[in-house]
Every structure is written in structure tokens, then in C-alpha cells.
Amino acid sequence: MSRGGNCLSTCSKQLKMKSLFSRLKTQPAVIMAINLAMMMVIYMLMRWFFYYMNKGSFQDVTTADLLLMSWGGLRFDLSALCYLNALCILLQFLPLKCRHTPAYQRVVKYVFVAVNTLGIVVNAADIAYFEFGGRRSTATRFAEYGGESNLGTILLNSVTGYWQVWLAGIALIAAVALCYYNPVKQRRPLSDLPSGAGYYVPHSIVFALALVLTLGGMRGGLGFKMHPLRQDSATIYCHNPHQAAIVLNTPFTIITTAHKKGYAEPHFFPAEQLDQIFNPVITPAETDDEGMNKLNVVVFLMESFSMEYTGFYNREPGYEGYTPFLDSLIARSHSFRYSFANGIRSVDCMPAAFAGIPRYINPYCYFMYSSNTLQGLPAMLKAEGYTTAFFHGAPNNTLGFKGFTNSIGFDSYYGMDEYGDKDFDGTWAIFDEPYLRYFADKTCDIARQGKPFFLTVFTASSHEPFTIPEQYKGTFTRGEIPMHRSISYSDFAIKQYFEKVKNEPWVNNTIFVFTADHTGVSHREDYNNEMGRFLIPIFFYTPGGQLPVGCDSTRLMQQTDITPSILSLLHYSKPYFSFGKNIFESDSTFVNYVFNDRNGLSMYYLDDLMIEYNNDKLVGIYEFRKDFSLKHNLIDKRDSYPQVPAMERQMQAILQQYVTRMKANRLTAEPDDE
After folding, report:
1. CA distance linking residue 339 with residue 321, whole number of Å
2. One domain for residues 233 and 337
3. What is the pLDDT of residues 621-638, one digit of tens each?
4. Are residues 306 and 176 in the same domain?
């Protein structure tokens, strides 16, 4: 009797487990999860097929590289699938009892197959198109082809020329339709479901949780401080932006650029004349030197250090500024009275300073062309035997810096992940003083390796909310606005770096370059104008005497000039790409210009004059050296300035080169440009 009772008990448990499993596998949430997992597998297969079909474009990719890129690609695949299947996710998680019926599930299946067929089609199309475009397609690709009268012929040639791609695509679409998981075959009496709150409360909680997870999937994570995934985020998992195409998928690049408008194509000059007016490919002059002068290079990117905060550049009576150490350093450096940022945000700084790409209307890193291949200064120096590293005391995913630094050739990245959070300011990053002491120690460690090095540190404390450590609250009290006190603290922190390294043997063999990323909060009226919003200190400090000490009041300096100028000091002899100039050029072809843009208002400085350009129209002329506050627009006297037509021509050429090369992914010194 006992055995029979045990047997019945065991059978009863098995039946209950079977019933539970049967109910669980028909839950809409489970159905959605299984089908999304199937699509993740399909997207990974398409990634590997993309790599296989375009292997000639990725000859330097090893198996280990491909595995890392595939691992990183999971985030982008999940993001794209969450976007594409948002309606299906909504339908499957709405707390409605009708979800448990065969008819409802058939509708969800039709929607699922339709939207994911579209995803497979655009992915397949890019497998075929990649060798022509050199990057994943964006939403602007449709606009570019919108006016083609022979679009049908183009598509037919694509199908016949890449039949294996489309055959694979058709097979995958069929797999989606045939393998779609849908166990709800028979109508279940809705009366079997719990009634009232017993059904709606738990399913509403699951619905809310699904929305949070879907949003996290779209963004690439649930961290509140992280920025949503962008195209340039893919470079975290590869060696250069070109390889980012393996990490990405085309639905992601199209969806995330759908709301953005590409640049309108300018046609100021015929293509064959353009390089004669302005050519961003720089070919260094031949010298008799025996190769490179491999000096070390250390670049300080100073958060929000406006020129107006310094005492050195503002010597009127009664004004001392808030940067006593920096002022003393500038006095021992090669500096410029007129030095400019090429952007208005932190993310604009590095493309300008290290890749020669100024901001034009949109930040390069956040725009649809951010996966273009760049010729970064770190990569150029790394090829010459330099150790390269980037330091920033914020979390490593801040502003996409890690991805961008990887894309331009930095070997190593030292952020909060490496430093730890013991000196965290509570909001933004590690306080500057302890972090710059850490940077000093790391600089010495790298110097001891015996190789030349290129290091960059991005300070952080002079960033909103302008927090300084508790022990210095009574020390840095001067200033009209909170920014001034944080600037003084950061200035003090930079001093601590030099106190630690001043006796090191490598210092005299090092070029220290200082630039702000952009201007900060303005307090002075004379800087509250379109020129003042870009004026920052840029200077070269060479303890070994490689450059003469003095402030050059004639030549105009900008962030895009940093790379060409550093390369000239190092006697670099290979062609490279930059919209900047070598500020130390003494040749007669030197053009003393600066270009910057503020949301479509473009400014071009040449010698003593500045012109403003908006919507292909000249809107301003200023004698900026005499009219520092830009109070007198001389547009009505344009005939008195014979150089204006040449300036307009030069600006138009810069804009046309910028847009056409950005769209065509030609931001390097290509062989046909040399």
C-alpha cells in the first residue's frame, strides 16, 4: 500500500511538473524570448557571412579578433532587434488575456516575420554593398539613391552579381518563418486563466519589467550614466573604425540614424579644382634629416579652460585670472595670442586635435559618419614605435571616449575602471589632483620602458557641478562663479603633476602640449561673442628648449593644427590627412587661417579678418584684432576688403571637402591623393 501511495505521489508530481511546463512554454513572454534568441543566432551567422564575403577588406583580422568583435556585436544585435521588434514585444507583454489565443499569436508571428525579414534584407544588402561604401549603410543611403532613375537595374545587378548573398538571405528568411516558436495551437478556455487581480497584477509587473529590459537592450545597457550605443561605440571591440563594420549590423546603423539628416552636398567647385583651392592631405616637405626626431609627447586636454580664465592673456589692471600655475607655464612656453577650439563640446576636441576633423554643424563622434576610417595621430606615432595611452578619470564608457580613442590608435585606456573610485567626486570623475598624480606615476612607468611615448590626459574637475575636494573648500575661494573655483583647483592639480615629474630624465626630451577641449561658462562681457566662445589657450611647453619661448600674436592657432604641428616638430615625413595646418610652417604657402562652426554658422579667420557664413551666404565681416568683442559688423563695407572673395572661396572649399569626403569615407591620405 505504501509503495502504491508513493507511486501515485510521484506520478502526481510528474503530472504537475508536466502541466507547469506545458503552461510555461505557451506563455507569450517565453515565446518572445525564444524567438529573439533565434534572431540573435541569425544575426551572428550574418555577421560571420559578412566577414567571409568581405574578407579582402579585413586582412588584418585574426580569429581572436573576430571572436572579440562577435562578442561585442551581441550588444548591437540585441539593440537592433529590440528596436525592430518593439511592436511584437508590446503585443506579447500587454496584460491582455487574448494573448493566449491561437489567432492572436498568429498575428504576432506575421508581424515578427515581416519586420525581421526587413532586417535580414538590409543586412544582406550591405554584405554586397560594403566593398563600395567601406562602411555599414545609414538612413541617408536611401536618400542618396532616391533620385536614381535606374534603381531597378541597380537592384537586379546586385541580385545577379551577389546571388550567394541573396540565396543565403532567402534561406534565413525561410528559417525565421519555419522555425518561429509558437506552441499555442489550440484555443485555451480563457476561464482557465486566473481572474481579476490574480491575472492582471503579476502580468502588469512582467509588462513593466519587459519595458525596462527592452529600453536597456535598445540603449546597450541599463546604466544610468552610460550613453546609448552609437556607431563609434563599436570601435571598443576592434582596432580601427573600418573593422567596426563587423561589430555592427545594418538595421542598427539605419535605425539610429533615421532621425538624422546627412549633410547637403555642396557644389561650389568642380571636383578637379577642389584640391587646388584647399587640400586636406598634407605632404611634409622633404628635409635632409636622418629620420624622425622621436621626442616624447604629452598632451593635456583641459576641461572647459576658456582663455578668459587666464591671467596671461588678460593683463588689464585689476584682473589676475584663476590659473596662476598655467600662467607661469605659458610664460615659459611657445604660445599664441589667438588660439581657438574647433568645437563646442568635449566630444569635438579629440577628432579635431588628433584626427584633424573640426566640428561642422554636428559632433563627429555622434553623427552618422562616425564609423569612417580616420588617420589618427596616435596610430601614426604607434607605427613609428611609440607607446600610446589615453587617461581620463571618468567611467570608461563616458561620452564614448574609449571607443574613439581605440579607433585612432591609442594602445591603452586608463579610466576609472583602472584607477578605482576612491577619489570619485560623486558625479562625474576622479578629482583632478589625485588623478594627475596617478598620471605622473604612470608617465614615469611608461618612460622606463625605454620607448618614445605619446600620452594624453583629459582633466575633469572643471566640469559641472564644479565640485572640489572637501579639504580644499576653504583654499580655492576666489571667483565670481563656481566655475572659477574649479578652474583654480584644476590649475593646482596640473602643478602637482609637474612637481612630481620635474626631475625625471625624460622631461627635457618631451613636448608638452596644452589645449582646452572647449570654452566654459563665460563671465566677461568681452568674451561673450562668437569669437570669445571659441578662444582657448593652446601652447607648447618644451623644457629641453626645442621651441623658442614667446607668445606669437601674428599666427592663428586652432585645435586641428595640433597634429600637423607636432608631426613637424618630430620631422614626420609621410603624407597624412588634416583640416589643420602646421603652425610652424615658414614656407611662403603658409595660410594663416582658422575655421570653426557653431550650429551652421561657419567662421573663417584669415590674418586680421574674420568672415561669417550661414546658409551659403556671407553674413558677417569683422576686424577681430581691433574689434575683440565683435561689435562692428562690416558687411556693408565689404568692397573695402579685397581679400573677402578669396576668403569666401577658401571657406567654400573647406566645406565642400569636408562634406564630400565625409560622405565618401575619404578621411585619410589615400594613395590617389598623395
Report:
1. 18
2. no
3. 999 999 999 999 999 999
4. no
